[in-house]
Design goal:
By secondary structure, this protein is of the alpha+beta class. It has two domains: 75 residues; 60 residues, Nucleotide Exchange Factor Grpe, Chain A, domain 2. It is 49% helix and 17% strand. Strands 4-6-9-5 form a four-stranded mixed beta sheet, with no helix packed on it. Strands 3-7-8 form a three-stranded antiparallel beta sheet. The longest helix has 56 residues. The chain starts with a helix and ends in a 10-residue tail after the last strand. This is Molecular chaperone GrpE. Keywords: Coiled coil, Membrane, Transmembrane, Transmembrane helix.
Length: 183
């Protein structure tokens, strides 16, 4: 789909360039100063210009429609991949409020669709929850301004990256949450 958009964009740019070239090669000129300075352009040139303008408008509309279709396809694909999670979330929320002692491990399988989506997009996690790592300000967001690069910290919340681009830095701290230890 992206290739089609690039092709349409290229075609639009090409039409605009041709239009500009035609305007330069066939400017409106004065036929005779005695004719009250009326501009004269050949009918053939005028028709070519009108045809190019129509084609340019058609290509703009195609590009707009393709953009809307891509957005719709993206939303539908994402919804399909998250459908299980989205369908079960309201029930799980009600259950958690009604039964606060419900074991969280019973809910973990609901997040499989979210894991699959992240994997299909090619995103990778930055660290693992509660993993001890050396602080790297490029990958981590510290909970304290005095944490120094290379200092040992714990990942409180993982981050995500796509290749070398950091989408969301992992949140780190010097300590684990109260009640949790490294064992």
């Amino acid at each position: 789909m992206l290739e089609q958009i690039n092709q349409v964009a290229f075609a639009v740019i090409l039409v605009i360039i041709v239009y500009i070239i035609l305007r330069i090669l066939f400017p409106e000129n004065n036929q005779d100063t005695s004719n009250n300075n009326e501009s004269v352009t050949s009918p053939d040139t005028e028709q070519k210009i009108k045809d190019l303008e129509i084609q340019c408008q058609r290509l703009r509309e195609e590009l707009k429609q393709q953009s809307q279709q891509l957005q719709s396809d993206f939303q539908n694909e994402t919804f399909t991949q998250l459908q299980t999670l989205l369908s079960n979330y309201p029930t799980v929320k009600k259950m958690a409020l009604a039964k606060p002692d419900l074991p969280a491990k019973n809910l973990i399988s609901l997040f499989t669709s979210l894991d699959n989506l992240i994997t299909s997009w090619g995103y990778t996690a930055i660290g693992e929850t509660w993993e001890q790592v050396n602080y790297n300000p490029q990958l981590h967001q510290a909970d304290s301004d005095d944490i120094q690069e290379g200092e040992l910290v714990y990942i409180r919340f993982i981050g995500y990256q796509n290749s070398d681009k950091i989408l969301y830095a992992a949140k780190v701290s010097r300590t684990l949450p109260p009640g949790f230890d490294n064992n």
